[in-house]
Amino acid sequence: MSEAASTRVALAKNTTSRKTTRRHPTSGTGTKALLPSLAPLLHEWVPRQRWFAGKGRPVTGFSLVAATEILPLDATATGPGLLHLLVRVHQPGSGQAHPQGDCYQLLLGVRTALPQRLAGARIGQVTEGPLAGRTLYEGLHDPRVADLLLERFRNPGSLGPLHFDRAEPIPPGLTPRVLDAEQSNSSLVFGDAFILKIFRRVFPGTNPDLELPLALGREGCGRVPAPVAWFEAATGPEPLTLGVLQPFLRGARDGWQLALAALAAGRDFLPEAHALGRATAEVHTALAAALPTPPLAHDRTRHLVAGMVERLEAAAQAVPALVPYVPGLRTAFDAVAALGGTGRGWDAQRVHGDLHLGQTLCGEDGFWSLIDFEGEPARPLPERRSPQPTVRDVAGMLRSFDYAARSHHPWNPEWAARCRTAYCEGYARAAGSDPRGEPELLRAHETDKAVYEVLYEARHRPDWLPVPMAAIQRLAAAPA
Ligand SMILES: Nc1ncnc2c1ncn2[C@@H]1O[C@H](COP(=O)(O)OP(=O)(O)O)[C@@H](O)[C@H]1O
Ligand SMILES: O=P(O)(O)O[C@H]1O[C@H](CO)[C@@H](O[C@H]2O[C@H](CO)[C@@H](O)[C@H](O)[C@H]2O)[C@H](O)[C@H]1O
After folding, report:
1. For the segment 260-311, what is each residue's pLDDT rounded down to a tens digit?
2. pLDDT digits over 140-151, tens only?
3. CB-ligand 2 contact for 356 (6 Å cutoff)
4. First CA to last CA across the chain, in angstroms?
5. Under a CB-based contact definition with an 8 Å cutoff, are residues 101 and 1 in contact?
6. pTM of the model
Protein backbone atom coordinates (compact mmCIF):
# COMPACT_ATOMS: atom_id res chain seq x y z
CA MET A 1 0.00 0.00 0.00
CA SER A 2 1.35 3.42 -0.84
CA GLU A 3 1.38 5.76 2.13
CA ALA A 4 -1.10 8.59 1.64
CA ALA A 5 1.17 10.82 3.60
CA SER A 6 4.63 10.24 4.87
CA THR A 7 4.96 12.01 8.18
CA ARG A 8 7.15 9.73 10.22
CA VAL A 9 7.94 10.00 13.87
CA ALA A 10 11.01 8.16 15.07
CA LEU A 11 10.42 7.48 18.74
CA ALA A 12 13.55 5.43 19.31
CA LYS A 13 15.80 8.41 18.67
CA ASN A 14 13.29 10.79 20.15
CA THR A 15 13.46 12.80 16.95
CA THR A 16 10.86 13.80 14.43
CA SER A 17 11.49 13.84 10.70
CA ARG A 18 8.88 15.26 8.39
CA LYS A 19 8.86 14.57 4.68
CA THR A 20 6.58 16.03 2.04
CA THR A 21 2.86 15.46 2.52
CA ARG A 22 0.14 15.24 -0.11
CA ARG A 23 -2.63 17.78 0.31
CA HIS A 24 -5.85 16.31 1.48
CA PRO A 25 -9.26 17.96 1.14
CA THR A 26 -10.31 17.39 4.74
CA SER A 27 -6.92 17.47 6.34
CA GLY A 28 -7.39 21.08 7.49
CA THR A 29 -4.40 23.29 8.01
CA GLY A 30 -1.66 21.35 9.68
CA THR A 31 -3.63 18.15 10.36
CA LYS A 32 -0.77 15.98 9.12
CA ALA A 33 1.73 18.00 11.04
CA LEU A 34 -0.15 17.03 14.21
CA LEU A 35 1.25 13.50 14.37
CA PRO A 36 4.66 14.44 15.81
CA SER A 37 2.99 16.24 18.72
CA LEU A 38 0.56 13.34 19.35
CA ALA A 39 3.17 10.59 19.00
CA PRO A 40 4.47 10.63 22.60
CA LEU A 41 0.90 10.16 23.88
CA LEU A 42 0.15 7.44 21.33
CA HIS A 43 3.38 5.70 22.20
CA GLU A 44 2.12 5.27 25.77
CA TRP A 45 -1.50 4.52 24.91
CA VAL A 46 -1.58 2.34 21.77
CA PRO A 47 0.47 -0.64 23.09
CA ARG A 48 -1.82 -0.91 26.14
CA GLN A 49 -4.99 -1.30 24.10
CA ARG A 50 -6.62 -4.73 23.92
CA TRP A 51 -6.85 -4.40 20.13
CA PHE A 52 -3.13 -3.71 19.68
CA ALA A 53 -1.79 -6.83 17.98
CA GLY A 54 1.92 -6.03 18.30
CA LYS A 55 2.23 -6.71 22.04
CA GLY A 56 5.64 -7.88 23.23
CA ARG A 57 7.58 -5.95 20.57
CA PRO A 58 8.74 -2.37 21.06
CA VAL A 59 7.06 0.46 19.17
CA THR A 60 9.77 2.47 17.45
CA GLY A 61 7.70 5.09 15.65
CA PHE A 62 4.55 6.05 13.83
CA SER A 63 3.87 7.18 10.29
CA LEU A 64 0.74 8.68 8.93
CA VAL A 65 -1.27 6.82 6.29
CA ALA A 66 -4.24 9.22 6.31
CA ALA A 67 -5.65 11.95 8.52
CA THR A 68 -9.21 13.24 8.33
CA GLU A 69 -10.67 15.96 10.49
CA ILE A 70 -14.21 14.61 10.94
CA LEU A 71 -15.11 17.36 13.43
CA PRO A 72 -13.11 20.61 13.28
CA LEU A 73 -10.18 20.80 15.67
CA ASP A 74 -10.73 24.54 15.99
CA ALA A 75 -9.86 25.57 19.57
CA THR A 76 -12.69 28.13 19.60
CA ALA A 77 -15.34 25.47 18.94
CA THR A 78 -17.44 24.66 22.01
CA GLY A 79 -17.71 20.93 21.39
CA PRO A 80 -15.16 18.23 20.69
CA GLY A 81 -12.93 17.90 17.65
CA LEU A 82 -12.59 14.50 16.04
CA LEU A 83 -9.51 13.34 14.24
CA HIS A 84 -9.65 10.12 12.23
CA LEU A 85 -6.18 8.69 11.83
CA LEU A 86 -4.80 5.72 9.95
CA VAL A 87 -1.40 5.26 11.49
CA ARG A 88 1.33 2.78 10.75
CA VAL A 89 2.87 1.58 13.99
CA HIS A 90 6.52 0.76 13.45
CA GLN A 91 7.84 -2.33 15.19
CA PRO A 92 10.94 -4.38 14.48
CA GLY A 93 10.36 -7.73 12.76
CA SER A 94 6.67 -7.15 12.15
CA GLY A 95 4.16 -6.35 9.50
CA GLN A 96 1.64 -8.75 8.05
CA ALA A 97 1.18 -6.65 4.99
CA HIS A 98 3.92 -4.08 5.40
CA PRO A 99 7.53 -4.60 6.45
CA GLN A 100 7.52 -1.57 8.74
CA GLY A 101 4.47 -2.45 10.77
CA ASP A 102 0.71 -2.70 10.81
CA CYS A 103 -1.80 0.06 10.12
CA TYR A 104 -4.29 0.96 12.87
CA GLN A 105 -7.45 3.04 12.86
CA LEU A 106 -7.74 5.68 15.62
CA LEU A 107 -10.66 7.98 16.33
CA LEU A 108 -9.23 10.65 18.55
CA GLY A 109 -11.39 13.14 20.39
CA VAL A 110 -9.87 16.54 21.19
CA ARG A 111 -11.27 18.85 23.87
CA THR A 112 -10.15 21.92 25.73
CA ALA A 113 -11.49 20.42 28.95
CA LEU A 114 -12.49 16.80 29.33
CA PRO A 115 -15.81 16.33 31.17
CA GLN A 116 -15.65 13.97 34.17
CA ARG A 117 -17.86 11.41 32.40
CA LEU A 118 -15.11 10.97 29.79
CA ALA A 119 -12.25 10.68 32.32
CA GLY A 120 -11.85 6.95 31.60
CA ALA A 121 -11.31 7.69 27.90
CA ARG A 122 -8.44 10.14 28.50
CA ILE A 123 -5.27 9.54 26.52
CA GLY A 124 -3.36 12.59 27.76
CA GLN A 125 -2.66 16.27 27.37
CA VAL A 126 -0.91 17.47 24.23
CA THR A 127 2.17 19.47 25.20
CA GLU A 128 3.35 20.88 21.88
CA GLY A 129 2.19 21.81 18.38
CA PRO A 130 -1.15 23.31 17.31
CA LEU A 131 -3.14 21.32 19.92
CA ALA A 132 -0.86 22.19 22.87
CA GLY A 133 -2.83 22.34 26.12
CA ARG A 134 -5.78 20.34 24.78
CA THR A 135 -6.77 16.86 25.90
CA LEU A 136 -6.72 13.85 23.62
CA TYR A 137 -9.13 11.00 24.32
CA GLU A 138 -10.65 7.83 22.85
CA GLY A 139 -13.36 9.41 20.70
CA LEU A 140 -15.65 6.38 20.59
CA HIS A 141 -16.53 6.89 24.26
CA ASP A 142 -18.02 10.30 23.50
CA PRO A 143 -21.75 10.08 22.59
CA ARG A 144 -21.39 13.22 20.44
CA VAL A 145 -18.75 11.49 18.38
CA ALA A 146 -20.83 8.32 18.13
CA ASP A 147 -23.88 10.36 17.01
CA LEU A 148 -21.78 11.96 14.33
CA LEU A 149 -20.60 8.61 13.00
CA LEU A 150 -24.18 7.39 12.76
CA GLU A 151 -25.12 10.59 10.91
CA ARG A 152 -22.36 9.83 8.39
CA PHE A 153 -23.93 6.43 7.73
CA ARG A 154 -27.37 7.98 7.44
CA ASN A 155 -26.05 10.38 4.81
CA PRO A 156 -23.47 8.33 2.93
CA GLY A 157 -20.77 9.74 0.69
CA SER A 158 -17.11 10.65 0.81
CA LEU A 159 -15.13 12.67 3.30
CA GLY A 160 -11.54 12.97 2.12
CA PRO A 161 -10.23 9.40 1.83
CA LEU A 162 -13.18 8.01 3.80
CA HIS A 163 -16.23 6.65 2.03
CA PHE A 164 -19.51 5.82 3.76
CA ASP A 165 -22.03 3.42 2.18
CA ARG A 166 -25.34 1.99 3.24
CA ALA A 167 -27.64 -0.81 2.12
CA GLU A 168 -30.82 0.53 3.71
CA PRO A 169 -32.17 3.62 5.53
CA ILE A 170 -31.09 4.11 9.14
CA PRO A 171 -33.38 5.89 11.62
CA PRO A 172 -32.05 8.99 13.46
CA GLY A 173 -31.64 9.61 17.18
CA LEU A 174 -30.44 6.20 18.37
CA THR A 175 -28.65 6.39 21.74
CA PRO A 176 -25.08 5.11 21.50
CA ARG A 177 -23.10 3.06 24.00
CA VAL A 178 -19.67 1.47 23.83
CA LEU A 179 -19.74 -2.29 24.04
CA ASP A 180 -17.76 -3.37 27.05
CA ALA A 181 -16.38 -6.64 25.67
CA GLU A 182 -12.93 -8.15 25.49
CA GLN A 183 -12.41 -7.58 21.79
CA SER A 184 -9.93 -7.50 18.93
CA ASN A 185 -11.81 -4.45 17.62
CA SER A 186 -14.16 -1.82 19.10
CA SER A 187 -17.94 -1.80 18.91
CA LEU A 188 -20.69 0.76 19.53
CA VAL A 189 -24.31 -0.18 20.01
CA PHE A 190 -26.97 2.28 18.81
CA GLY A 191 -30.32 2.14 20.56
CA ASP A 192 -30.09 -1.64 20.85
CA ALA A 193 -30.97 -1.61 17.13
CA PHE A 194 -27.55 -1.63 15.45
CA ILE A 195 -23.99 -2.47 16.31
CA LEU A 196 -21.05 -0.71 14.67
CA LYS A 197 -17.79 -2.58 14.62
CA ILE A 198 -14.75 -0.39 14.13
CA PHE A 199 -11.80 -2.41 12.84
CA ARG A 200 -8.60 -1.46 14.58
CA ARG A 201 -5.87 -3.16 12.57
CA VAL A 202 -6.71 -2.54 8.94
CA PHE A 203 -5.42 -4.03 5.71
CA PRO A 204 -5.73 -3.29 2.00
CA GLY A 205 -8.56 -5.41 0.56
CA THR A 206 -12.15 -5.92 1.63
CA ASN A 207 -12.40 -7.34 5.13
CA PRO A 208 -14.15 -10.74 5.09
CA ASP A 209 -16.30 -9.50 7.98
CA LEU A 210 -17.96 -7.22 5.42
CA GLU A 211 -17.55 -9.41 2.33
CA LEU A 212 -18.99 -12.67 3.72
CA PRO A 213 -22.02 -11.29 5.59
CA LEU A 214 -22.91 -9.28 2.44
CA ALA A 215 -22.62 -12.45 0.32
CA LEU A 216 -24.64 -14.46 2.84
CA GLY A 217 -27.31 -11.76 2.92
CA ARG A 218 -27.58 -11.89 -0.88
CA GLU A 219 -27.88 -15.66 -0.60
CA GLY A 220 -30.77 -15.29 1.85
CA CYS A 221 -28.92 -16.96 4.74
CA GLY A 222 -30.54 -15.74 7.96
CA ARG A 223 -27.80 -17.10 10.26
CA VAL A 224 -25.66 -13.96 9.97
CA PRO A 225 -26.75 -10.36 10.63
CA ALA A 226 -26.50 -8.67 7.21
CA PRO A 227 -24.50 -5.41 6.97
CA VAL A 228 -26.66 -2.30 6.94
CA ALA A 229 -23.84 0.20 6.33
CA TRP A 230 -20.04 0.31 6.20
CA PHE A 231 -17.13 2.66 5.63
CA GLU A 232 -13.81 2.30 3.90
CA ALA A 233 -10.68 4.33 3.18
CA ALA A 234 -9.14 4.84 -0.25
CA THR A 235 -5.45 5.22 0.49
CA GLY A 236 -4.04 2.93 -2.20
CA PRO A 237 -5.07 0.55 -4.99
CA GLU A 238 -7.32 -1.48 -2.66
CA PRO A 239 -9.81 -0.09 -0.11
CA LEU A 240 -9.30 -0.55 3.61
CA THR A 241 -12.49 -1.67 5.35
CA LEU A 242 -12.85 0.49 8.46
CA GLY A 243 -16.20 -0.39 10.00
CA VAL A 244 -19.48 -2.26 9.54
CA LEU A 245 -22.93 -1.45 10.96
CA GLN A 246 -25.29 -4.40 11.34
CA PRO A 247 -28.51 -5.24 13.21
CA PHE A 248 -27.97 -5.73 16.94
CA LEU A 249 -29.41 -9.03 18.17
CA ARG A 250 -31.03 -7.71 21.35
CA GLY A 251 -31.12 -10.09 24.27
CA ALA A 252 -28.89 -12.62 22.52
CA ARG A 253 -26.28 -14.45 24.62
CA ASP A 254 -23.08 -15.82 23.24
CA GLY A 255 -22.33 -19.51 23.11
CA TRP A 256 -19.33 -19.16 25.41
CA GLN A 257 -21.41 -17.68 28.26
CA LEU A 258 -24.12 -20.28 27.73
CA ALA A 259 -21.64 -23.16 27.71
CA LEU A 260 -20.03 -21.92 30.94
CA ALA A 261 -23.46 -21.50 32.52
CA ALA A 262 -24.34 -25.09 31.58
CA LEU A 263 -21.06 -26.35 33.06
CA ALA A 264 -21.63 -24.35 36.27
CA ALA A 265 -25.10 -25.85 36.59
CA GLY A 266 -23.76 -29.36 35.96
CA ARG A 267 -25.78 -29.55 32.75
CA ASP A 268 -24.92 -30.94 29.36
CA PHE A 269 -24.97 -28.63 26.36
CA LEU A 270 -26.14 -31.14 23.79
CA PRO A 271 -29.20 -29.53 22.13
CA GLU A 272 -27.17 -26.33 21.89
CA ALA A 273 -24.12 -28.07 20.41
CA HIS A 274 -26.34 -29.92 17.93
CA ALA A 275 -28.05 -26.66 16.90
CA LEU A 276 -24.66 -24.98 16.54
CA GLY A 277 -23.54 -27.77 14.21
CA ARG A 278 -26.63 -27.20 12.13
CA ALA A 279 -26.10 -23.41 12.03
CA THR A 280 -22.47 -23.89 10.95
CA ALA A 281 -23.50 -26.28 8.17
CA GLU A 282 -26.16 -23.87 6.90
CA VAL A 283 -23.65 -21.05 6.73
CA HIS A 284 -21.17 -23.28 4.89
CA THR A 285 -23.82 -24.34 2.39
CA ALA A 286 -24.76 -20.72 1.71
CA LEU A 287 -21.11 -19.66 1.37
CA ALA A 288 -20.49 -22.48 -1.09
CA ALA A 289 -23.47 -21.32 -3.14
CA ALA A 290 -22.46 -17.66 -3.02
CA LEU A 291 -18.72 -17.80 -3.68
CA PRO A 292 -16.22 -19.93 -5.65
CA THR A 293 -15.39 -23.46 -4.46
CA PRO A 294 -12.10 -24.50 -6.09
CA PRO A 295 -11.14 -28.07 -5.14
CA LEU A 296 -8.03 -28.51 -3.03
CA ALA A 297 -5.88 -30.42 -5.53
CA HIS A 298 -2.46 -31.87 -4.71
CA ASP A 299 -0.45 -28.66 -5.09
CA ARG A 300 -2.90 -26.74 -2.92
CA THR A 301 -2.88 -29.51 -0.30
CA ARG A 302 0.90 -29.13 -0.19
CA HIS A 303 0.45 -25.41 0.28
CA LEU A 304 -2.13 -25.99 3.06
CA VAL A 305 0.20 -28.37 4.91
CA ALA A 306 3.22 -26.11 4.37
CA GLY A 307 1.28 -23.28 6.03
CA MET A 308 0.47 -25.45 9.04
CA VAL A 309 4.11 -26.55 9.41
CA GLU A 310 5.31 -22.97 9.07
CA ARG A 311 2.89 -21.76 11.74
CA LEU A 312 3.95 -24.57 14.07
CA GLU A 313 7.62 -23.69 13.67
CA ALA A 314 6.99 -19.99 14.19
CA ALA A 315 4.87 -20.70 17.29
CA ALA A 316 7.53 -23.02 18.74
CA GLN A 317 10.10 -20.25 18.34
CA ALA A 318 7.89 -17.79 20.15
CA VAL A 319 6.67 -20.22 22.85
CA PRO A 320 9.48 -22.61 23.86
CA ALA A 321 7.02 -24.81 25.83
CA LEU A 322 5.80 -26.08 22.44
CA VAL A 323 9.19 -27.38 21.30
CA PRO A 324 9.03 -30.92 22.82
CA TYR A 325 5.68 -31.52 21.12
CA VAL A 326 6.69 -30.43 17.62
CA PRO A 327 7.55 -33.93 16.27
CA GLY A 328 4.27 -35.39 17.58
CA LEU A 329 2.23 -32.50 16.17
CA ARG A 330 3.98 -32.76 12.82
CA THR A 331 2.57 -36.28 12.32
CA ALA A 332 -0.91 -34.78 11.96
CA PHE A 333 0.27 -32.56 9.11
CA ASP A 334 2.35 -35.33 7.51
CA ALA A 335 -0.72 -37.58 7.39
CA VAL A 336 -2.59 -35.01 5.27
CA ALA A 337 0.46 -34.48 3.04
CA ALA A 338 0.71 -38.24 2.51
CA LEU A 339 -2.95 -38.49 1.51
CA GLY A 340 -2.53 -35.53 -0.83
CA GLY A 341 0.44 -37.36 -2.37
CA THR A 342 -1.83 -40.28 -3.27
CA GLY A 343 -3.92 -37.93 -5.37
CA ARG A 344 -6.67 -37.47 -2.76
CA GLY A 345 -8.26 -34.02 -3.02
CA TRP A 346 -10.64 -32.08 -0.77
CA ASP A 347 -13.37 -29.54 -1.33
CA ALA A 348 -12.54 -25.98 -0.43
CA GLN A 349 -14.67 -22.88 -0.08
CA ARG A 350 -14.88 -19.64 1.88
CA VAL A 351 -15.28 -20.31 5.60
CA HIS A 352 -15.67 -18.34 8.83
CA GLY A 353 -12.00 -18.85 9.68
CA ASP A 354 -12.02 -18.29 13.46
CA LEU A 355 -15.14 -20.05 14.65
CA HIS A 356 -15.48 -20.53 18.39
CA LEU A 357 -18.26 -20.35 20.97
CA GLY A 358 -17.71 -16.61 21.46
CA GLN A 359 -18.61 -16.05 17.79
CA THR A 360 -22.07 -17.55 18.16
CA LEU A 361 -25.14 -15.78 19.50
CA CYS A 362 -28.32 -17.47 20.70
CA GLY A 363 -31.40 -15.27 20.42
CA GLU A 364 -34.19 -15.20 23.00
CA ASP A 365 -36.08 -17.53 20.64
CA GLY A 366 -33.21 -20.06 20.73
CA PHE A 367 -32.11 -19.31 17.16
CA TRP A 368 -28.31 -19.40 16.70
CA SER A 369 -26.44 -16.82 14.61
CA LEU A 370 -22.76 -16.64 13.69
CA ILE A 371 -20.79 -13.39 13.84
CA ASP A 372 -17.28 -12.02 13.27
CA PHE A 373 -16.15 -13.35 9.90
CA GLU A 374 -12.77 -11.63 10.05
CA GLY A 375 -10.85 -14.91 10.36
CA GLU A 376 -7.86 -15.33 12.66
CA PRO A 377 -6.61 -11.79 13.18
CA ALA A 378 -2.95 -12.87 13.08
CA ARG A 379 -3.14 -14.27 9.55
CA PRO A 380 -2.45 -12.21 6.41
CA LEU A 381 -5.67 -11.02 4.78
CA PRO A 382 -5.18 -12.84 1.41
CA GLU A 383 -4.79 -16.08 3.34
CA ARG A 384 -7.91 -15.40 5.42
CA ARG A 385 -9.85 -14.79 2.20
CA SER A 386 -8.66 -17.96 0.47
CA PRO A 387 -11.00 -20.98 0.12
CA GLN A 388 -10.32 -23.68 2.71
CA PRO A 389 -11.81 -27.02 3.79
CA THR A 390 -14.91 -26.50 5.93
CA VAL A 391 -13.36 -28.63 8.70
CA ARG A 392 -11.31 -25.54 9.60
CA ASP A 393 -14.45 -24.11 11.22
CA VAL A 394 -15.56 -27.44 12.65
CA ALA A 395 -12.12 -27.82 14.26
CA GLY A 396 -12.44 -24.32 15.77
CA MET A 397 -15.73 -25.20 17.45
CA LEU A 398 -14.45 -28.57 18.67
CA ARG A 399 -11.53 -26.77 20.30
CA SER A 400 -13.95 -24.34 21.88
CA PHE A 401 -15.89 -27.09 23.70
CA ASP A 402 -12.54 -28.23 25.04
CA TYR A 403 -11.75 -24.65 26.16
CA ALA A 404 -15.06 -24.38 27.98
CA ALA A 405 -14.61 -27.72 29.77
CA ARG A 406 -11.04 -26.82 30.75
CA SER A 407 -12.00 -23.48 32.22
CA HIS A 408 -14.42 -25.09 34.64
CA HIS A 409 -13.38 -26.89 37.84
CA PRO A 410 -13.41 -29.80 38.21
CA TRP A 411 -12.34 -30.48 34.64
CA ASN A 412 -14.98 -32.56 32.87
CA PRO A 413 -13.51 -33.95 29.63
CA GLU A 414 -16.59 -36.11 28.96
CA TRP A 415 -18.72 -32.97 28.83
CA ALA A 416 -16.58 -31.68 25.96
CA ALA A 417 -16.51 -35.06 24.21
CA ARG A 418 -20.34 -35.24 24.26
CA CYS A 419 -20.61 -31.69 22.91
CA ARG A 420 -18.16 -32.49 20.14
CA THR A 421 -20.23 -35.52 19.10
CA ALA A 422 -23.51 -33.59 19.19
CA TYR A 423 -22.00 -30.72 17.18
CA CYS A 424 -20.70 -33.07 14.46
CA GLU A 425 -24.06 -34.86 14.34
CA GLY A 426 -25.93 -31.57 13.96
CA TYR A 427 -23.50 -30.53 11.25
CA ALA A 428 -23.83 -33.85 9.40
CA ARG A 429 -27.63 -33.75 9.56
CA ALA A 430 -27.75 -30.32 7.86
CA ALA A 431 -24.77 -30.64 5.51
CA GLY A 432 -25.30 -34.21 4.41
CA SER A 433 -21.69 -35.11 5.20
CA ASP A 434 -20.06 -35.80 8.54
CA PRO A 435 -16.87 -33.83 9.29
CA ARG A 436 -15.54 -36.89 11.15
CA GLY A 437 -15.48 -38.67 7.77
CA GLU A 438 -12.12 -36.97 7.05
CA PRO A 439 -10.26 -37.79 10.30
CA GLU A 440 -6.78 -36.83 9.06
CA LEU A 441 -7.95 -33.45 7.80
CA LEU A 442 -9.90 -32.78 10.98
CA ARG A 443 -7.00 -33.71 13.25
CA ALA A 444 -4.59 -31.53 11.24
CA HIS A 445 -6.94 -28.56 11.52
CA GLU A 446 -7.49 -29.11 15.23
CA THR A 447 -3.75 -29.24 15.71
CA ASP A 448 -3.25 -26.08 13.65
CA LYS A 449 -5.93 -24.34 15.73
CA ALA A 450 -4.41 -25.43 19.04
CA VAL A 451 -1.02 -24.13 17.87
CA TYR A 452 -2.64 -20.80 16.96
CA GLU A 453 -4.28 -20.68 20.39
CA VAL A 454 -0.98 -21.26 22.16
CA LEU A 455 0.50 -18.26 20.39
CA TYR A 456 -2.65 -16.20 20.93
CA GLU A 457 -2.76 -16.93 24.66
CA ALA A 458 1.00 -16.39 25.10
CA ARG A 459 0.60 -12.94 23.55
CA HIS A 460 -2.72 -11.84 24.97
CA ARG A 461 -3.70 -13.92 28.03
CA PRO A 462 -0.71 -15.84 29.43
CA ASP A 463 -2.85 -17.17 32.30
CA TRP A 464 -4.88 -19.14 29.74
CA LEU A 465 -1.86 -20.84 28.17
CA PRO A 466 -2.43 -24.16 30.02
CA VAL A 467 -5.77 -24.58 28.19
CA PRO A 468 -4.40 -24.98 24.64
CA MET A 469 -1.21 -26.60 26.02
CA ALA A 470 -3.31 -29.45 27.42
CA ALA A 471 -4.72 -30.01 23.92
CA ILE A 472 -1.24 -29.85 22.45
CA GLN A 473 -0.17 -32.71 24.72
CA ARG A 474 -3.18 -34.76 23.72
CA LEU A 475 -2.82 -34.06 19.98
CA ALA A 476 0.93 -34.69 19.96
CA ALA A 477 0.40 -38.09 21.58
CA ALA A 478 -2.48 -39.16 19.28
CA PRO A 479 -1.67 -41.98 16.89
CA ALA A 480 -1.14 -40.79 13.31
N1 LIG B 1 -25.09 -8.43 15.71
C2 LIG B 1 -24.82 -8.50 17.02
N3 LIG B 1 -25.80 -8.47 17.94
C4 LIG B 1 -25.55 -8.52 19.27
N5 LIG B 1 -24.31 -8.55 19.77
C6 LIG B 1 -23.28 -8.58 18.91
C7 LIG B 1 -23.48 -8.56 17.49
N8 LIG B 1 -22.27 -8.58 16.89
C9 LIG B 1 -21.36 -8.62 17.87
N10 LIG B 1 -21.96 -8.62 19.09
C11 LIG B 1 -21.30 -8.63 20.40
O12 LIG B 1 -20.07 -7.96 20.26
C13 LIG B 1 -18.98 -8.81 20.66
C14 LIG B 1 -17.78 -8.52 19.80
O15 LIG B 1 -18.10 -8.71 18.43
P16 LIG B 1 -17.07 -9.35 17.42
O17 LIG B 1 -17.60 -9.22 16.04
O18 LIG B 1 -16.72 -10.75 17.87
O19 LIG B 1 -15.81 -8.38 17.59
P20 LIG B 1 -14.24 -8.66 17.68
O21 LIG B 1 -13.77 -8.99 16.29
O22 LIG B 1 -13.68 -7.39 18.16
O23 LIG B 1 -14.00 -9.82 18.64
C24 LIG B 1 -19.53 -10.22 20.52
O25 LIG B 1 -18.90 -11.12 21.38
C26 LIG B 1 -20.99 -10.04 20.86
O27 LIG B 1 -21.17 -10.10 22.25
O1 LIG C 1 -13.07 -13.23 19.21
P2 LIG C 1 -11.80 -12.84 18.55
O3 LIG C 1 -11.93 -12.62 17.08
O4 LIG C 1 -11.11 -11.69 19.21
O5 LIG C 1 -10.87 -14.18 18.68
C6 LIG C 1 -9.65 -14.21 19.40
O7 LIG C 1 -9.89 -14.21 20.80
C8 LIG C 1 -10.58 -15.38 21.32
C9 LIG C 1 -10.68 -15.21 22.84
O10 LIG C 1 -11.43 -14.09 23.15
C11 LIG C 1 -9.79 -16.65 20.99
O12 LIG C 1 -10.58 -17.78 21.39
C13 LIG C 1 -10.03 -18.71 22.30
O14 LIG C 1 -10.62 -18.50 23.59
C15 LIG C 1 -12.06 -18.71 23.62
C16 LIG C 1 -12.48 -18.51 25.07
O17 LIG C 1 -12.26 -17.18 25.46
C18 LIG C 1 -12.42 -20.12 23.16
O19 LIG C 1 -13.84 -20.27 23.11
C20 LIG C 1 -11.86 -20.36 21.77
O21 LIG C 1 -12.12 -21.70 21.38
C22 LIG C 1 -10.34 -20.12 21.79
O23 LIG C 1 -9.81 -20.26 20.46
C24 LIG C 1 -9.60 -16.74 19.49
O25 LIG C 1 -8.81 -17.89 19.20
C26 LIG C 1 -8.86 -15.46 19.01
O27 LIG C 1 -8.72 -15.49 17.60
Report:
1. 999 999 999 999 999 999 999 999 999 999 999 987 766 778 889 999 999 9
2. 999 999 999 999
3. yes
4. 43
5. no
6. 0.91
Distance (Å) from CA 306 to ligand 2 centroid? 24
Ligand 1 mutation target, pool 371, 376, 379, most atoms within 8 A of CB? 371
The interface pTM score, or ipTM, of the predicted complex is: 0.98
Q: What is the CA radius of gyration of the chain?
A: 23
What region does 202 belong to: left with phi over 0, alpha with psi -120 to 50, or beta? beta
CA distances from 396 to 76, 118, 405, 438 (A): 53, 38, 15, 15
The amino acid present at 16, given as its one-letter code, is: T
Residue 363 CA to residue 254 CA, distance in Å, equals 9
Longest dimension (CA), the chain: 73
DSSP 8-state secondary structure symbol assigned to residue 199: P
Q: What is the distance in A from the centroid of ligand 2 to the CA of 134?
A: 38
For residue 226, CA distances in Å to 87, 331, 434 come to 29, 40, 28
C-beta atoms surrounding 431 within 10 Å: 19
C-alpha span between 248 and 196 (Å, rounded)? 9
Does the bond joining 466 to the residue before it have cis omega, within 30 degrees of 0?
no
Closest by CA position to 450, among listed 436, 461, 466, 430:
466
